[in-house]
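Obj.: predict assembly geometry.
Materials: sequence records (below).
Method: joint structure prediction, all chains together.
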Amino acid sequence: MEVPILRQGQYLIASIQSALTDADLSHLREALIAQVGRSRCRGVIVDVTALDVMDSFAVRTLRDIAHMARLRGAETVIVGIQPDVAFAMVQLGLTLKGVATVLDLEEGLAFLNRRTEERFLETKPKRPSERG
Amino acid sequence: MGEELRLSIAADVDVVEARQQGRALAAVAGFSSGEQTVIAAAISEIARNILMYAKKGEITLSLVQNGDRQGVSIIATDQGPGIPDIDRAMQYGYSTSHGVGAGLPGAKRLMDEFDVDSVVGRGTTITMKKWRRAI
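Observations (raw structure tokens):
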């Protein structure tokens, strides 16, 4: 089951539609990282609303996606973790440390807008008048 | 009672099938949707372990009863290499396969009963149960 990856402006949105096998998850990671470069995007949203379970492999793959995308210049945010899935993750002792998570797609877009703006301001050379 | 669901685990689609069947059975047993997800996650971890270490094996799902308590039983068997050091394999974060090391200890955390029987060179059987909380 391939996960469709849509491009919206400077962002890529991977919207998981059903339960995924380990191979599907690995494929999603490869496809996203390749596409971050091809489309020169600044942000990645992975929508996991339809994911039935987040076990150790799924969590590790999402973490890898976020870290690899960051190395390629894009911020990642995971959206749509369901209450039951969050409950099982906590009981399993799994965390998404270092990975941004927000409630839904709308929040995800708002998050990326803020983050990419901050990044732009950080890297923009200051005008002489702004220097201390 | 008495009816068992035996599932062959030989490919990663079988892992998804096993956890979905496990969730369905947990629903029949009356578990909440949160607990159904917990049971599905535990099945996912041990089914993946079968694939990683033994390549193939079997998972048997059944409903169990103890007095007036209802629960689900999950038995995972394989004829793989066995686990040389069960104590270490049960340590969180320990893995011989570049994994997260959350498989066995994670599944144990999720379930009420968890038992590993493994003989090196012969195979591994994991038996785990979860009981419904009394209301």
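Conclusions so far: Residues 105-123 of chain A form the longest helix (19 residues).
To do: check interface contacts against the pulldown list.
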